[in-house]
Amino acid sequence: MATINFGGVDESVITREEYPLSKALETLKDETIAIIGYGVQGPAQGLNMRDNGFNVIVGQRKDSKTYQKAIEDGWVEGETLFPIEEACERGTIICNLLSDAGQIAVWPTMKKYLTDGKALVFSHGFGVTFHEETSIIPPDNVDVMLVAPKGSGTSVRRLFLDGKGINSSYAIFQDVTGKAKERILAVGIGVGSGYLFETTFQKEVYSDLTGERGILMGALAGVMEAQYNLLRSKGHSPSESFNETVEELTQSLIRLVGENGMDWMYANCSTTAQRGALDWKDRFRDAVKPVFNDLYESVETGNEARITIERNSQSDYREKLQVELDELKESEMWQAGSKVRELRP
């Protein structure tokens, strides 16, 4: 475990140098890792672990589209691909990668297979943290941990194939066997983590829900719409408005931030851009601070969890969701974006 200084604060992290793949393979050599769910994180984590040499199987409903996707990805029925119940029975480490709503629905079935000494692994602290709403209360005879990659399943797989890695958090909720830490670190390395930092189930879900609703998705989409709409209302064309709002950010500036930091990006822009950005940065920060405070409170009190569970449990949820997604897709801003992407060289 390495101690790294993050902006003046020391944190302990696990790197691949300290916990190499060879050690992870040795730790889990007698384990069968069952990936339950093949939607967002399941394919990436399962394929990465399989490619890294672990003994991995997949559990998925046979009548689902994702079952067919698993077959297309090379999982073999009756050998490495099973119905959820059989995969849970065969697995010694059960990775519950179903959606939050899916976890609630499958939990009564899954918990039957959590026999002595097994490990239950999550990639999100939602179900366990908000157990009053989800009824997901792990039995006291199994290890319970999480490893949460800080990105979408697509990114987890793409970075792995590029020979890189995505950073992940890990947490231990319950250590029955005395091996929970070794087990979860091995899983974390196996799924392709660049480095692992410690958290708790509660902190993971609080930060995750805040991030998704905030800067990663909700806030980003909202401020983009605000700027695009302003420019359009002032007579700028859709192409100009989109390029100044989205294209320059995603294709140029945010990449510079990712490579070297915000200060480096500022230093490598025009002096006019530097001055304006520095002058307006604090105004934007102060303007959105109350919104972020409200957001975190909504997460912390469980309100966001209740909204999610209530909406996702409705029988027509997917149909309603598609209507909202279609509205986003068909808006002028993102129709303009589609054309801009087509015109990229």
Record the SSE blueprint.
Blueprint: E1 2-6, E2 9-15, H1 21-27, E3 33-36, H2 42-51, E4 56-59, H3 65-72, E5 81-82, H4 84-90, E6 93-96, H5 100-110, E7 119-122, H6 126-129, H7 131-134, E8 143-149, H8 153-161, E9 166-174, H9 180-190, E10 193-198, H10 201-213, H11 218-233, H12 238-260, H13 262-267, H14 271-300, H15 303-312, H16 317-330, H17 332-342
Parallel strand pairs: 3-4, 3-6, 4-5, 6-7, 7-8, 9-10
Antiparallel strand pairs: 1-2, 2-10, 8-9
Helix pairs in contact: 1-9, 2-8, 10-14, 11-12, 12-17
Any overview of this molecule?
The protein is an alpha/beta fold. The chain has two domains: 2-198, Rossmann fold (3-Layer(aba) Sandwich); 214-342, no CATH class. Helices cover 56% and strands 15% of the residues. It has a ten-stranded mixed β-sheet, sandwiched between helices. Helix 5 links the parallel strand 6 and strand 7. Helix 10 (201-213) crosses helix 14 (271-300). It is globular, with a radius of gyration of 22 Å.
Instruction: Tell me the fraction of residues in β-strands, as a range.
Output: 15-25%
Order of helical and strand elements: EEHEHEHEHEHEHHEHEHEHHHHHHHH
The domain tally reads 2
- Average pLDDT figure: 95
Which architecture of the largest domain per CATH? 3-Layer(aba) Sandwich
Count of helix runs: 17
- The CATH superfamily of the largest domain is identified as NAD(P)-binding Rossmann-like Domain
**Low-pLDDT windows of residues:** none
Q: Portion of residues in helices? A: 55-70%
Radius of gyration: 22 Å
Indicate the CATH topology of the largest domain.
Rossmann fold
Instruction: Give the CA-CA distance, first to last residue.
Output: 45 Å
**In one word, what is the shape?**
globular
Structural class: alpha/beta
